[in-house]
Amino acid sequence: MIAAIGILCLLAGLAFITLAGLGVARLPDAFQRMHASTKAGTLGASLTVIGAALLLPSIRLASVGLTILFLLLTLPVASQLLARAAYKSGARLTGLTRGDPLASILRRQDLPLEERVKTTETPRPD
Amino acid sequence: MNGLDLSLIGAILGVALMVPLALAAWRMIKGPGIADRFVALDMLTAVVVALSAAVSLATGRGVFLDIGLGVALINFVATVAVSAFLERKGDGR
């Protein structure tokens, strides 16, 4: 019974991680890719760890709990910081139908960082 | 444990996890922007944690799960550092 639940958890986790990978590969801009990788990736990794803990009795419960706790604590913070930085550095936004609601709140570059680096090939003053 | 071949399950899981790994790697190589590449790096954390679970199933040693914990923590620090860099460069002084 426990083994069946464990295998079910492993399959669900694998499905979620594969969906997250598919989203990272297929979605059109950085923020939508982040949305796929953060949510589905965290859920898939946590489910896989839970499934492995249910199948294997020699796994300590503390490391399972700590792994999931750290995933749930750190991934939202990291993706929030990365999204804010990507927005401010001018990463492309696609598929907005009602304009950019953050436009009056955060200052934002017009061009993405890689294009600014490419177009301004001036020597650095310092 | 009741007739289940845990090492086979772990091996199958590890092989199946190569698909999201390949998708994230493709995005990291191709990804048009710098932010896209770091999103792919974030994605790798989830894959690595799941892979450490698969390895601990395949070998029967629970300690391999702690590698996933360590990689998750290191990747958090890496993402924070990179976003600080991106935000400072993005402000354009």
Explain the overall architecture.
The complex is a heterodimer of chains A (126) and B (93). Chain A has helices at residues 2-26, 30-55, 61-88, 113-119. The longest helix of chain A has 28 residues, at 61-88. With 126 residues, chain A is mainly alpha-helical. Chain A has one domain (2-93, 101-119). Chain A has four helices and no strands. Chain B is mainly alpha-helical. Chain B has one domain. Helices cover 83% and strands 0% of the residues of chain B. Chain B is built from four helices and no strands. In chain B, helix 3 (34-59) packs antiparallel against helix 4 (65-91). The longest helix of chain B has 27 residues, at 65-91. The model of chain B has no long low-confidence stretch (mean pLDDT 86). Chains A and B meet through helix 1, helix 2, helix 3 and helix 4 of A and helix 1, helix 2, helix 3 and helix 4 of B.
